[in-house]
Design brief:
The chain has about 220 residues and is α/β, with parallel strands linked by helices. It has helices at about 10-20, 50-60, 85-115, 125-130, 135-155, 180-185, 195-205; strands spanning about 1-5, 25-30, 40, 65-70, 115-120, 160-165, 220. The longest helix is centred in the middle third of the chain and has 29 residues, at about 85-115.
Amino acid sequence: MFIVTGASKGLGKAICSRLIKNNMQVLGLARDTSNLPFESINCDVSSADEVRSVTKLIRKQKYNVTGIINAAGIASMNLALTTPSAIAEKIVKTNLLGTIYCCQNFAPFLIRNKKGTIINFSTIAVSLGLKGESIYIASKAGVEGFSRAFAREMADFNISVNCIAPGPIKTDLIKGVSKKQIEKIISNQIFQKHFTPDNVCDLVEILISDRAKTLSGQVFHIGGV
């Protein structure tokens, strides 16, 4: 079973659909899981207590967890000096601490099996250092640094840890970003075009397969930098 966070929309939901299409079992986590067509649990990953509660339920149900995909994330495109502290805290708690909490609580299931895959999500904006995204970038840069170090901690258990860092993908995450800013980001990519959730799902398929068993501690940029 793959645990997928942010499963109610965007990349998380697309990844769940792709895994199910490939006959894989999925447990989706999101703040609101009503009407999702797959097994899911309400969970705000920014809350350590809620993540621990989900862990207890997984243990009680004796699910065989084979992978963790941390796709939950939020963004706020504001200059650092004009971003309210509450918004900054929410971004960091969801993107960085949420990823850490899920790895801390769910990785032991993989350790028990002596194998597994963990995929965390960053953004191409980390490498590009985009104006107006400094706090969002800080949270995702933290995810990248955590993932590289955590990969070394998990290596002895035959568990891979990698990051996917997409460019602009047409999901709700970027609906508040201006067309001009999106075009500026794309102009800095190696492949200067929009990509889709399917492109991300294609990479997820590779990273969870035996074809990627030698890869860990890496950041893969959709679009290229």
